[in-house]
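Tokens help. Our protein:
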Amino acid sequence: MLEKIKAFLFKNTSTKQTVAKNTFWLTVSNFGGRIIKAVIVIYAARVLGTAGWGVASYALTLSGFLTIFIDPGINSILMREASYGDETKRVTYFSTTLFIKILLLFVCALVVIFVAPFFSLLPGAVVLLPLTALIIIFDGTREFLSSFIRSMEKMEWEAVIFVSENIAIVAFGIFLMVRSPVPYSFLLAYVLGAAASVFIAVYYLRSYLKKVFSFFSLKLIKPIFVTAWPFAISGALGLFFTSTDVLIISWLRSASDVGIYSAATRIVQTLYLIPGIIQYATLPLFARLAKKDDPKFRVALEQTLSMVFFASIPLSIGGIILGTPLMGLVFGSAYLPGGLSFEILMATLLFDFAASIVINALFAYDHQKSLIISSILGAAVNVGLDLLLIPIYGIAGSAVSTLFAQAVNNGYLWYAMKKINNFSVVSHLKKIIVAGAVMAVVTALLALLGVNVIVNIILSGAAYLLVLRALREPLLIEVKRLLVPAHVSSGENV
């Protein structure tokens, strides 16, 4: 049994086993790492207060907003191109994109240090900008190296890197904030943790890094940017769904509002990792099937979308009903005013989860230009509604604008993908919708009875799974087959 587990977790033996293995390690990496980091995030949010946490969140949001300048699709292109082809092609793409990435990191750091101070309106934010520049450098480098590791389908390496980073952030964060509970201490801990993760990634890829000068190709730079520019535009516009909300709130409202809204988005963005895990795990498979076997690609896409709705429907329902008590439980009573915003943002899971997979599919078919139109539509809706609703309704208005923008953006993505490969998912969701409706009734009744929110979540989740089991939902069987090593054979196909 031990040998079977080792083979399942550390070797690629079949398509399904590899996807399952990658999904497992990405889950460990993202959720394990985020759960660990949640310790310092919750501690910092409580110790710094809504205003102090708002300033720290603003600095982190700014670093996320500027990542478009250090990854205009470079990471995705590296992951796609290095996932198939011979070793020479893999190393050549790695070497060439690495030099591009280094240049972009340097330019972005200069922008943060010398330009960002003119746009930072929150008191106390300017002093954090040098640390923000370091976060961008270390996080950008780690994410780039992780993209190459994903192309090799060695997600177990990425798990070690990311979990180690978050352990370091927590350790440094507790040490520094006990001594000095200010936003600067929190940001410094983040810098030190991110730097530690880069050192580990460099160790794993040391054999490739020794070859970077030998395999650099000047001829590849133009094709890379030609392929990447749709990502640069769509990525810049797509950031309106995450970073711009916080930036606009910082211009129109107080630091406390920024802190409360950022706390709400922290939970939601952690849940956004679920489709991201599946997205990274299935991109190599989609890249191999696109344009070569459309029927098999359609089946893989439908199964993947069914899986994300399997997760997003109960999470959205539970979040909408239990949002306010969850905010109080996690961050404290000072953050209860963000309950309504959190409940609205939880509804975005229904759109965002599916969109992550559809974007993957469009990218596999080289239709990334479709992302530009969808991003323009979504960005226009998001910014327009932000400017209209935030002055009147505060952070709840920002959440509403995000929900509408996600619906418009992701609706177009769905339409574009169906034109390329006419997939269908609704017929696979009937039992999931019924189970979600039953769960909603259970959750609401337990809330009315005053049942503890954690107990409510456990009982509601159990009700959802029991209904699916009673209805004999095929996805439950599929999940079990993917996760149990003994059920995986080398001859299985998607």
Summary: DSSP finds 21 helices and no strands in the chain. The CA atoms of residues 202 and 467 lie 47 Å apart. Confidence is low (pLDDT under 50) at residues 485-494. Residues 15-65 form the longest helix (51 residues).
